[in-house]
Write a structure and sequence with these properties.
Radius of gyration: 19 Å
CATH superfamily of the largest domain: Lactate dehydrogenase/glycoside hydrolase, family 4, C-terminal
Number of helices: 8
CATH topology of the largest domain: L-2-Hydroxyisocaproate Dehydrogenase, Chain A, domain 2
Order of helices and strands: EHEHEEHEHEHEEEEEEEHHEEEEEH
CATH class of the largest domain: Alpha Beta
CATH architecture of the largest domain: Alpha-Beta Complex
Number of strands: 18
Distance between the termini: 42 Å
Strand order of the largest sheet: 3-2-1-4-5-6
Number of domains: 2
């Protein structure tokens, strides 16, 4: 089977996030095989053994690992989580320089080993890291992108569903822009069981008034900081959301997900990586959908883009 359809998923970096992604993939049956890479050989060996020992209870999946990057050869999908992790009180953009340099170094090496692979960056700050990676290698369009605001959008939908007292699958909505402090919750296009948020009623009462919408958007932005302060890292939900991205690629699902890509014209944006609703398939990140935006949302998106362009200039000049 050709590498671009063989179901091999490699994970570069097996810290708390990389391990959570591997675990989520194993449980969900997201990969035909999992290859783990980390510079710490004992850590890789331990995680591989721990995952293998649960093989009886999950769909069949070969799991192996190494401290040699060649373990990732012939992958269909490569997930990169390696890099310094976010510390309590630290913004994602403060992680910038070291992780951007890592991405620019490792991406050509990964593509040399797996020329047809789709490479998904999860390392923060993911938008700038994705931009650095995209600039470092001559990959087919859409074959390098970032996990973006897929997790942020899940947090957004969860908070809306909780207040509406509905299953989260009944809520549709996106967070776009930076995966970070300047991200924008697109309230104007939220649908709750087919009802726009502004018209949704519970017991005859409007519950998504402007103050509530502002608070939910703030809670989405601050969610990672609260989790990091409490347990040191966010890992479980990003594991699940990354597994979902992997499934969209492996299954050629043409799933619309808010991943981070180098923008080439949507909303007039260019020369910046940020998240917008994007069609994800076996070919990687494809068409970007231009959801109608309110004036405030459009202004927020442009401001987020400016923030990310400035951040990227710090590492590209």
């Amino acid at each position: 089977m050709p590498a671009h359809r063989n179901g091999k998923v490699s994970i570069v970096g097996v810290g708390s996030v990389g391990t959570a992604i591997a675990y989520a993939c194993l449980i969900r049956g997201s990969a035909a095989s999992l290859a783990l890479y980390d510079v710490v050989a004992k850590k890789v060996r331990a995680e591989v053994l721990d995952l293998r020992h649960g093989s009886q209870f999950v769909p069949h999946c070969q799991v192996y690992g190494s401290d040699d990057l060649s373990v990732t050869a012939d992958s269909q999908i490569v997930i990169v989580t390696a890099g310094a992790k976010q510390k309590p009180g630290q913004t994602r953009l403060e992680l910038l320089a070291a992780n951007a340099a890592m991405a620019a170094d490792v991406t050509p090496k990964l593509l040399e080993l797996s020329p047809n692979a789709v490479i998904v960056f999860v390392t923060n700050p993911v938008d700038v890291i994705t931009h650095a990676a995209t600039a470092s290698a001559d990959a087919p369009p859409g074959h390098i992108f970032g996990s973006g605001t897929v997790l942020d959008s899940s947090r957004f939908r969860y908070l809306i569903a909780e207040l509406a007292d509905l299953a989260v699958g009944n809520v549709h909505g996106f967070v776009v822009g930076e995966h970070g402090d300047s991200e924008i919750a697109l309230w104007s296009s939220v649908s709750i069981g087919g009802v726009p948020a502004a018209h949704f009623r519970k017991d005859g009462r409007q519950i998504f008034d402007p103050a509530t919408r502002t608070q939910i958007a703030a809670d989405v932005v601050n969610a990672a900081y609260e989790i990091i302060e409490g347990k040191g890292a966010t890992n479980l939900a990003i594991g699940l959301s990354t597994a979902r991205i992997i499934e969209a690629i492996r299954g050629h699902q043409h799933r619309v997900l808010p991943v981070s890509t180098l923008q080439t014209g949507a909303y007039g944006l260019g020369e910046v990586c940020l998240s917008l609703p994007t069609v994800v398939s076996a070919d990687g990140a494809g068409q970007v959908l231009e959801v109608p935006l309110s004036v405030d949302e459009r202004d927020g998106l442009f401001a987020s883009a400016a923030t990310l362009r400035d951040a990227y200039r710090l590492v590209s000049s």
